[in-house]
Structures are given as structure tokens and as C-alpha cells.
Amino acid sequence: MFAERALKATPWRSDEVNETLRMSDPAPKSVESAGRPQMSLVSPGSAEPYRRLAEIFHDVLSEENPTALLARIADTLAELIPYEDVHIYEADEVKRILIPVLARSQWADQVMSETFSFGEGITGWAVVNREPVLANKAHLDPRVRFVPGTPVDPEALIAVPLIARGRLKGTLNIYRVGEHAEFTAEEFHLATRFGDAAALAIDNAHIRSRLEHQASTDALTGLYNHRTFHDRLRQEVMRASAEHDTVALVMFDLDDFKKVNDVYGHGVGDQLLLQVADVLRASVRASDVVCRIGGEEFAIILPTADLRHSIALAERVGTELGKLEVEAAGGLTVSTGVAVGPLHAANPRELVACSEAAMMTAKARGKGLIVPYDESTLERPSGERARRADVRSIAHMKMLQSLSGKLSRLNDVARIGLTIADELRLLIDYHNCRVFLRDGDDLMPIAFRGDLTAAEPGAPVKLSPTKIGRGVTGRVAATGKPLLIHDARRSEFGEQIAGTAEIEESLLAVPLSFGSRVIGVIVISKLGVNQFDEDDLRALEVLAGHTSVALENARLYEAQRREAESATALLEFARDVATAEGIAEVAERVVIGSARILSSPSASLWLQDPMSGDLARLAAYDNVARRDEHEVVAIPAKHLGPWLGRTEPYFIEAADYAAIAAPPEHLDGRFAVAPLMVEGRWGVIAAAIPPESMFADRELELLGGLAQQTKLALQSAGSYESLEQTFVTTVEALANALEANDEYTSTHARWITDLALKVGMELGLEQKELKWLELGALFHDIGKIGIPSAILLKPGPLTPEERAVVETHPLLGERILEPIAQLAEVRRIVRSCHERFDGEGYPDKLAGDAIPIESRIIFVCDAFHAMTTDRPYRSSLGEEVARARLLEGAGSQFDPLVVETCLRVLDEE
After folding, report:
1. Alpha carbon distances (Å) from 514 to 144, 437, 482, 546, 618
2. Secondary structure (3-state) at 802
3. Lowest-pLDDT range of 71-85, 259-273, 284-298, 834-848
4. Mean pLDDT lowest among 112-126, 317-331, 337-351, 758-772
């Protein structure tokens, strides 16, 4: 079983593979021994698998993790081509072997333990020749090689070499098992195309993995680099705070390393750094993080470690490093500083500062020393506090200068919020920053930087809107006064963010004020208590002043932009519905346009029935769910009482809707509704509010504008349909007047028209075509107005000269209608109403499909009516004879399909 088939005898030639591809698809068959049916969704000539393949390409190519990618390839392949087993091999082109990396099989252990060389088996042949193989009798193939330990069963195999950017990445093997198992040529082609996507996805994942590794590691030592050091330290400090645990940081600096480089050269220095990296790796636990953070500076992050364990590690590392001999420089020593959070610092930046200060103290006191952080024993330069204040003042001014320039170029509130958060980090250290903007009584988050510690590891945490007066943020927004909170857990205003862990942190919250109005709030958090001071508060207040002006300007710009967008959307909507023909088309365009403009998942248009007063649905659009037979299509008049008097747009809450009907499964029952009046009948446009979303005044105003345009369009369409009906009635009266001299055929035109419309609908004609058919049937004999009555009503046979006169009436009819531009299509139909299917008709000798379908329908219906009614020159032939003559003339005089359809319609009547 599982032929990784060896190339032993006559190899398959590429022309044999191509011949396989040229074979027609055999009928799919079941596999007797398989638990799953061997049914393929691929049918000859079907485009659906390729449309699905295009969707799958995006899905597969989006996976970033190499391991997860292999499982996704196997899963998505099953949607295209049902299989019994699938194997994926990775190619090692240097060793020229194929290594199994995934096996979906009962015999996965055996498959995953077996590698094989290029050229071995059918798979090996496909790799060497870089050609996919279809082997529907794989067990009989001369190249057969079975995986040891698997049974020898009949099976079909597709082996696709995975090639990306000209390089062999591996192979994809697809199996069906059983005596009658096989793959079609169509499935083979589909598998090959899928293999292209799989190869590219695997190559992309490997490239991405290499780049991520390079971005996070030091190029020389392979240890984590400076950037990754800070990321991992921040994660560990947050974890320790959330779990009330510890995290230690040990920092090393190699003593006299500059001398090594200067005396012995950088080659020796690099070799020494590699040896140091090896010692550090060998000295730590699996959970510890070893980093190179500078030229000769290293750091180790120790989760869940205290001062004693950290010093013990530092001593062990120092001993091992001392064993390294550096040419004539002698043994290596390191100066080490140790700090533990939250004992010495509660946030990552300060923990680094503590450990670094201890390390510098060790270096100042001598070589090879280990110093734990202790503020009381550290020697600090005099005047440090004054210099720190000066540095902060300079940094403050530089930040505000930079910020002013950046904000002047922004007009998007979200980008302004993120810019503020990014610039603020340069001045005040924080572990997260939140910027809120006021919307009525709500405070909406517009920007977030940093981390939120989840209560449960791995659980997603989302920053949600809050209310004025609620929590620290809401308190600041309500009072307009800033808050400096040294311990958020013990604050009287504090409120824990949903889904986050309870941690020790300090808070600064300042209002964003424009004039006397509070338009938002900036909140920053820092791990640990007493982490902010009055200087931080003043700096944040100054920044908030700049931010408020920028945000207010951006909001005004955004309001104008949205106003312009709304006006443009309403204009396009008005144009669209104004060009619709008929009320039904207007209604269809209204609901589609309303859903699109409002980004609503569902929209509907309703209008009162003039007789019952019920609110009837004219049209509905739903971009999520399919319509079902139980959905609401009318609301009884008894439910409309509370709403009939309303003329302005409003919101319906879920409870209001539930009193009328159960909401659709994917909606929660909240709707925005805009009333309208059309000729005394009350109606509404209803747009569903997306779950967990909000509609505001703008959406109501937009919906009101849509309702006004809908009202005008419905009135126009109603007037048009009324005029059109008057026109059709007039035409019908004129057509009947033509035959008024004949008491037997005075309703000839209407009878033919009714029958023709039924046949047209049965044949699937569109609405426009049905309208042309109706007018064509009414006008088809209008040219007879120019034929003398003596000829039209002659009781006996016509002479050749008289028949020639009669046969001019289609041309006369076309000429009569010519001045009416709107009847251009109808003129064409009238001219061809007496053309025969075999080309022997008149006036143009048209044949088959060259004759308009409407004319072919009218010709059959006219002939049947003529044969079944009394005429001046003969009595009715009777319906049975008329049916027989239609069948007899099918294919010569009449279109066979039209005859068949006409007789079926007559049978149904």
C-alpha cells in the first residue's frame, strides 16, 4: 500500500502522461473497502471547482505557520478532491531525499518513518522529471515501491511535485484505495493547479519563518537580539504582575572586551562572543530567555525567579566563563547586575534600568563582580535629579515640536490618536495608552498602544466603549478634571476592563477639552504603584491640549467628508431608482442601494395595501441569509397603530420587533426605519442594524433621504405604469377596431396577446421582452388598415395579385409605427410576424433564429386562433385539427420549441 513506487522497468514517458490528460473523464465509482464514498464534485466542463480553487488559493496562501500550513493544505484539498489518504514530502535537494512531513493515513507511523531517494517510486520519478503523475493502477505500475509495513492494496495515486520559484519544495501525494479506485483527468488537472498554490504557500511560510528568525535573533551568536529582549521582557513583566509572580533580569558585560578586539582583532573577538553564547545557553533553564543586547552586553530573563536564584545563576555563568582562555589575555571575567520585579521595579523599562545600574556599579567596583540592585548602595552623581528634570524639559519641548508638525498633516481621528500614543511613549514610559473620543454619552476608543493582560492566558481581550461617568475614564470625561491614581486597584473610581487580569498599575487620565466641552480622554497605565508624578501629569495635560485641537479639526473635516459622501450616495441612489422601469424594479433597486449605502446586512421596502391596510413587502435584500418560505411578507394592520402617525426616521429595538415577528437568525431585531407616503399609502424602508454595531443620527438622516427619493421614484413608476396601461388599452382598442367589420374576430388581437404572453413567460422571456411581445401581438396586424376591405373580407380564395397586396401588411405596419421612437423593437417584431421557420415566409425570407423570438411566438398563436375561429372564407377547423396542423408545421412553418410550449400552455388551460 502507498506506492512511493520505485523506477524499476520501463519509465512512463511524458507523452503517456499527456495522453492520460486527453482521456475523457470516466464515471466515478465507489470503493468497496473504503468507509468514505469515492465521489468527486468535479464534473467534466464544470467551472465551479476552479472558482472554488481560486478561493482556496487565498485561504492556503494566507497561512503563516509552516506546521499549520501542512494541515490546512490537507483540509482544503479534501474540499476539492475527496481522497482516502494524503502525504506531503519535503525535498532535501542537497542529500537528494524526500522526507515525510505530513501523513493523513491509517498507516501514518509507517509513512512518517520512511524517507527515500530522488528517483525511487512513482513519487521519485515525478521529482526527478518535475512532472505530475496520474497512476490509476498504481499497484501495477512498473515503478512500484511500497512503504514497508503497509498492505499491498489496489490504489490510485496522484503525485504532484511541489515547485515554487523554480525550486523543488517537495511532493503532494493523493490516494484512493480499492479495486475500482481512480481519479479523473479533470481531478488530476485540478490537483496539479492546487499543487502550485501549495508549493508557493510552503515556500512563503519558510521564507517568512526565516525572516522572523533573522529579525528576532543576533546574526553572530544566534541569541535573541535587542528588540526581542524588550518584547519578551515586557511580556514576562505583565505575566508576573497578572499572576502575582516574579521575574528576574541578569545583565552581563564582558570585562576588557575592547582590549581583546584591539590586540587580537575582531576575528578573535567574534569567536569569544560565540563561546560566551554557548556558555549562556548551557547554563539556563528551558524557560529562560538569553539575549545579546549590545556589543559585549548580554542579558538573561528568568521567569518565576527570585534574587537568590538569579545570583546563583550569575555565579554559575561567571565560573563557566572564567574557564575560557582568551589567547594571552588570560581568563574571561564579567561584571553582572541583578534586579527582580516587582521587588525592584514593576515595569520593564525600570527593571532594565535597575539591572543596568547594578551592572555598572559592579564594573565600577572591579572585575568579575555580581551586584544585586540596591538603591541605597548605588553611587549616583550629584545633581542627577536636576539634570533629569532638565532632560525631561528638553524632551518635552522636542516632542511637542515634533507632534505639532505631525498633527498638522493629519485629518483622521484614529491616526491622530495613534500618533499621540506613539509620541507620548518618548516622554513617559507606559505599558498601555488609550485614547477615547466622546460620542453623546458614549466614550469610543479610537487608539490603543501597548498590552492588556488577559485574565486567562491566550484569551482575547478587546477594548470596548464606555459611558460618561463610568470608571476612571468616564469620571474624567464627566468632570473635566484630570486624575493621577497611584494604585488603580484601590481607586474609588477604578473599574476593571472586562476580560483582563487584576494587576498592580498606576494610572494617569486627562480630559481632551475644546473650549468648555470635553471631547475625549487620554489614559495611560504603568505596571506597579506610584509610577507617575506631577511632572508626568503636567506633560500629559500639555499634550492633551494639542490633541484636542487636532481631534476637533479632524472631526469637523470628517463630518464634512461624510456629508459630501452622503450627498453623493443619495444622488447616485436617486439616479439609479429613477431609471428603473416599473414599481417592482424600483423596489428591488431601493433595498439593494439602502443596504449598500448604510452597510446594513438586510434591507426591505414595505407599502400599505390600499384595501386591507396591511403593510406588504415590496422587496427585500439580505446579504447573509437565504430567504425561506416562513419569512414575514406582510404585517397585519392591527400591529401598525403605534407607528402610522410617524413621519420622521426612527429606531426599532429588538423588543419592538419581537412583538411583530421573530428576527432572522443572523440579526438581533434592531432596525432603522424611515416612513414614506405614496398616494395616501403609508410605507417604510427598514434597514437592519448589524449585531454589536451602532447606528447614529447620520444613518437615520441618510435613511430619511433614501425614503424621500424612494417616494418620488415609486410615484413616478406608478404614474408611468398607469400611462403605460392606458397606452396598451388604447392600442388594444385600435387593434380591435381594425377587425370591427368582422363579428367573429373583434377580440382577435387580445386573445392572441394573452396566449403569446403565457408562452413567452413559459419560455423564460425577460420583463422587457414580454412588454415588447405584448405590444407586438397587439400591433401585429395593424398594417391591414392599408389593405382594401374587399380583399380582407373576400369569402373565396385570393388571386396571386390579391395575395401580393395582403403580404404587404407587415411592411405597412412597420411604417405606421415608425414615427414612435419608443416602439423601435416592436416595429421589428411586427415586420417579422409572418416569417416562416424554414425561410419561406414574408417579407424578408428570414429563417430560424434570425426571426425574433417574439415574432415566432405571435406567428404560432395567430395561426392557432385563425384555425379555431370562423372566417369569411371558411368555418372553424376545430381545436384538434388546429393542434395537428401546428405539429405538422413544426420545423418548417413554425418554430418547434414554440409549438411545443404553446400546446403545453393550452393543455394547462
Report:
1. 80, 12, 15, 10, 48
2. helix
3. 259-273
4. 317-331
Quote the cell numbers at residue 800. Answer: 396571386
Rounded Cα distance between 170 and 200, Å, is 11
CA distance 430 to 417: 16
Closest CA to 743 of 873, 871, 868: 871
CA-closest candidate to residue 716, choices 573, 583, 575, 570: 583
DSSP 158-196: EEEEEEETTEEEEEEEEEEESTT----HHHHHHHHHHHH
Query: CA-CA distance, 150 to 897, in Å (whole number)?
Result: 60
pLDDT tens per residue across span 671-685: 888 898 888 888 888
The pLDDT of residue 29 is: 32
Look-up of cell digits 486527453: 22
Q: Cα separation of 522 and 443, whole Å? A: 11
Q: Cell 521519485: give the residue.
A: 124
CA distance 770 to 764: 9
Q: Enumerate the H helices of 330-457 as residue ranges.
A: 348-365, 384-407, 413-425
Q: Which amino acid is at 428?
A: I
Give me the pLDDT at residue 643, please. Answer: 76
Amino acid at 586: V
**Which one-letter DSSP state was computed for residue 638?**
G
Task: Tell me the residue length of the chain.
Answer: 909
Q: Is the pLDDT of residue 382 over 80?
A: no
**Backbone dihedral angles phi then psi of residue 443, each to the nearest 5 degrees:** -115, 110
Question: Looking at residue 797, what DSSP letter applies?
Answer: P
Identify the sign of the CA torsion 73, 74, 78, 82: positive
Q: For 197-209, how does the pLDDT look when each residue is reduced to its tens digit (9 = 90+)?
A: 888 888 888 877 7
**How many angstroms separate the CA atoms of 8 and 120, rounded?**
8
